[in-house]
Amino acid sequence: MASLALSFPPAAAKTPSYLSSSSSTFFSSSLSFTTSQSHSRNSVFASIKCDLGNGNPSIPIINERTLPKFLESARMEKSANRTNNNTRLKLFSGTANPALSQEIAWYMGLDLGKIKIKRFADGEIYVQLEESVRGCDVYLVQPTCTPTNENLMELLIMVDACRRASAKKVTAVIPYFGYARADRKTQGRESIAAKLVANLITEAGADRVLACDLHSGQSMGYFDIPVDHVYCQPVILDYLASKSIAAEDLVVVSPDVGGVARARAFAKKLSDAPLAIVDKRRSGHNVAEVMNLIGDVKGKVAVMVDDMIDTAGTIVKGAALLHQEGAREVYACCTHAVFSPPAIERLSGGLLQEVIVTNTLPVAEKNYFPQLTILSVANLLGETIWRVHDDSSVSSIFL
């Protein structure tokens, strides 16, 4: 019987290939963060102050030996206190985004747990933990990205393996939650797949879910277990703060009415920047038609904010409208770079000054284009995992 065996060795201080690309970078430490004592370690960036007028246009590439200052100091101070605490914490990676898992492990000062994942000739998935997790607090890092169903099934089997190996607690760390857009019925006789997936993860044996920038907040209510919602805004805000953009020239744009709350929160962090809204009408799935613009963007730098870019129809048509209405430059910021065809052709067409995404999903090198910037959320996720493990506040990170 043919099979594909995948196993993850202990963490090594090596920069993933996509981070060494000229089109990608870690986030820099241009923002001012306030720290406070929590448990045995310092809490990180309890408050955020952003002044785009004082930004530094030079963006360094952060390698595996350096961290942003607001996380570097906390990491070094915590390392001495972790020796006795991390023996009960285990971090495992699925096959969906091992590079992100490796970065998280490095920030936390841990080695990735040894796990064997293979696929039989008929497509069935086999998972075996190659080290004991009895009585441990286990965290499984696995975004349910393309191929969505296969990665979801792999996560469920990993959770089941941990539960049957007598893990004390199992937390599913899902940087990108697939099926999140199927969170309600828009027409008769439709399914609500987000609720179904939440039930599957719960029934598999997960005790907690940690997810990044869910498509809608109500998705947290679909789980019958605790959900920690990680907002990736600090990472993108920190990068934008390094841009030499005057605060009075900035306008934050929501690409649709449904994203107004997200864009408003983003604008508040950017010196309370003005807000504009693109009114769009969909004629079908993955098909968007821009109608008009609510707000003034003439002569301004427009920053479009969304949770994901899939086929890029919404973002590109919105950018075209913004240019038509007199915007000087248009930036697109999103957490999840789904990039389904023909997204790359659309995004590299010249309408966007820069496309800023994070590495919650792996971006293949063939999908790189000059305007693309990839920011890492590994430090943010690593800090969140430590706080959950220590029973410390998670929400204080985003205040």
TrEMBL record:
Its EC number is 2.7.6.1. Residues 89-205 form the Ribose-phosphate pyrophosphokinase N-terminal domain. It catalyses: D-ribose 5-phosphate + ATP = 5-phospho-alpha-D-ribose 1-diphosphate + AMP + H(+). GO terms for molecular function: ATP binding; kinase activity; magnesium ion binding; ribose phosphate diphosphokinase activity. GO terms for biological process: 5-phosphoribose 1-diphosphate biosynthetic process; purine nucleotide biosynthetic process; ribonucleoside monophosphate biosynthetic process. The keyword Ion transport does not apply. HAMAP family: RibP_PPkinase_B. This is ribose-phosphate diphosphokinase.
